[in-house]
C-alpha cells in the first residue's frame, strides 16, 4: 500500500492537485489527499451512487482522479466507470451536431441532501461553498483531441438556453445513454489497488 505522501507525490507527477473535496475529510498528514469512508453498520453510507464526473461544480474540475484502496467491505464496494468518449462516438451525427456548442450549468447536486436537514441557511452556505460552473456539454480531451459527453446526473443541473422541461428531457436521454453497459467497466477492489482515470 502507498502512504498518503506517496499517493500525493504520484498525483503531483501527473499535474497540480485539485483543491480538496469540500465535503469529504482529508488525510491528517497530507491535506491534499481526500479520504472517502463509509460504514454501513454505523449509518455512514456512500453518497456517490449516481453516475458523475468528479467535482464538475467547480469552474476547473480535476483533470484526473486517483483512488487507492486501503480498507474494503467484505461485500460490495465495486466501482463502475463509463467512457463518455465511447458514448459520444455512438450518438447519431444529427445529435452530435445539436450537442456541439451547448453548455450546461453544474452545481453540487445531491450533495445538498447532506445539508437539507440543517435548514435553509445550511443549504445556502453549502451552495456558496461548493459553487457552480458552466461547462460545454461536449468537451474535447486536450491530450487525445477526442470528444466526450460532459454531463452527469450527479451535478449537471440544466442546459443553458433551454427551458427546464426540454433540458430535463435531453439530460435524461444523455444520462441513460451514458449508463449503457457497453460504455462501462466495473472494478472489483482489492486492498492496495490504485486506479487512475
What does this structure look like?
With 197 residues, the chain is α+β, with helices and mostly antiparallel strands. It contains six helices and eleven strands. The protein has a three-stranded antiparallel sheet. The longest helix is centred in the last third of the chain and has 15 residues, at 164-178. The two termini are 19 Å apart. The mean pLDDT is 88.
Oligomeric state of this protein = single chain
Give the amount of beta strand, in percent.
15-25%
Q: Strands across the major sheet, in which order?
A: 6-5-9
Low-pLDDT ranges: none
Count of helices? 6
Q: Quote the distance from N terminus to C terminus.
A: 19 Å
Helix content: 25-40%
Tell me the Rg in angstroms.
18 Å
Element string (H = helix, E = strand): HEEEEHHEHHEEEEHEE
Mean of residue pLDDT? 88
Structural class: alpha+beta
In short:
Helices cover 27% and strands 18% of the residues. With 197 residues, it is an alpha+beta fold.
Q: What's the SSE blueprint?
A:
Blueprint: H1 4-14, E1 25-26, E2 34-35, E3 66-68, E4 79-82, H2 84-89, H3 93-99, E5 103-106, H4 113-116, H5 120-130, E6 133-136, E7 138-140, E8 147-149, E9 156-159, H6 164-178, E10 184-187, E11 194-196
Antiparallel strand pairs: 1-2, 3-11, 4-10, 5-6, 5-9, 7-8
Keywords:
197 residues; 11 strands; two-stranded antiparallel ribbon; 3-stranded antiparallel sheet
Amino acid at each position: 500500500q502507498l502512504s498518503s505522501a506517496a499517493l500525493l507525490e504520484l498525483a503531483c507527477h501527473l499535474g497540480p492537485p485539485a483543491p480538496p473535496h469540500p465535503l469529504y475529510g482529508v488525510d491528517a498528514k497530507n491535506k491534499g489527499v481526500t479520504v472517502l469512508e463509509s460504514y454501513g453498520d454505523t449509518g455512514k453510507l456512500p453518497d456517490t451512487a449516481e453516475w458523475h464526473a468528479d467535482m464538475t461544480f467547480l469552474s476547473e474540475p480535476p483533470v484526473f482522479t486517483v483512488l487507492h484502496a486501503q480498507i474494503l467491505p467484505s461485500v460490495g464496494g465495486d466501482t463502475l466507470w463509463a467512457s463518455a468518449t465511447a458514448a459520444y462516438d455512438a450518438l447519431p451525427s444529427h445529435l452530435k451536431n445539436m450537442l456541439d456548442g451547448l453548455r450546461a450549468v453544474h452545481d453540487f447536486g445531491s450533495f445538498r441532501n447532506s445539508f437539507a436537514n440543517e435548514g435553509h441557511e445550511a443549504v445556502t452556505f453549502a451552495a456558496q461553498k461548493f459553487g457552480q460552473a458552466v461547462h460545454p456539454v461536449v468537451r474535447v480531451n486536450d491530450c487525445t483531441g477526442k470528444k466526450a459527453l460532459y454531463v452527469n446526473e450527479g451535478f449537471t443541473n440544466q442546459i443553458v438556453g433551454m427551458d427546464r422541461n426540454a433540458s430535463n428531457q435531453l439530460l435524461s436521454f444523455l444520462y441513460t445513454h451514458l449508463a449503457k453497459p457497453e460504455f462501462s467497466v466495473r472494478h472489483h477492489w482489492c486492498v492496495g489497488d490504485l486506479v487512475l482515470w
